[in-house]
Amino acid sequence: GAGVSQSPRYKVAKRGQDVALRCDPISGHVSLFWYQQALGQGPEFLTYFQNEAQLDKSGLPSDRFFAERPEGSVSTLKIQRTQQEDSAVYLCASSPSRLAGTSGANVLTFGAGSRLTVL
Amino acid sequence: GQQLNQSPQSMFIQEGEDVSMNCTSSSIFNTWLWYKQDPGEGPVLLIALYKAGELTSNGRLTAQFGITRKDSFLNISASIPSDVGIYFCAGQVILVGTSYGKLTFGQGTILTVHP
User: Taking all residues of chain A, what is their mean pLDDT, rounded to a whole number?
Assistant: First the structure.
């Protein structure tokens, strides 16, 4: 597609439920990032994929958070046993290259995000 | 947690006025970026800066990469109502031994423009 697509756009979960958030990056993009954005804050890094390989998961808050990108395209962020503090917007972003931002050709394109509310 | 200090937190201005916001960090970044986020949307890149001292313009927007690599500012000239939104600075480091970098975002500046 033309942009990064995320679904669902809105998710309400009861505390303790498991949720899965999907990201469809721009076709052919090698790099994929997940960020978490709490209300009134800037996004915070969660994890990074280069194709199907998860190269960095240092930002995942706990072992309840799990991300995968099995075929190097679509990615899923799964949160198990959701807690109220998990309420946030989860942003996915992709870029065409494995190389970091050294030129305008490799800038990140963000999706609109999935807003998770845990009651 | 976040390392960037972005100011001001919010601004209320009249249409036609100029706006300035800045970010400072205790750490050095390889790249500085400025994003705008509208409600219900993801951040959209406005300007990217790749070299210390670099001054870059994009229409009415001008941004600079501080010479110390620890700060950056964004100026918007002759503001218009559609400039309303949240502006974020972001710094990127290229991690040693890797070819990728992750972004650290500031807390955002909420801009309101009165017609």
Answer: 92
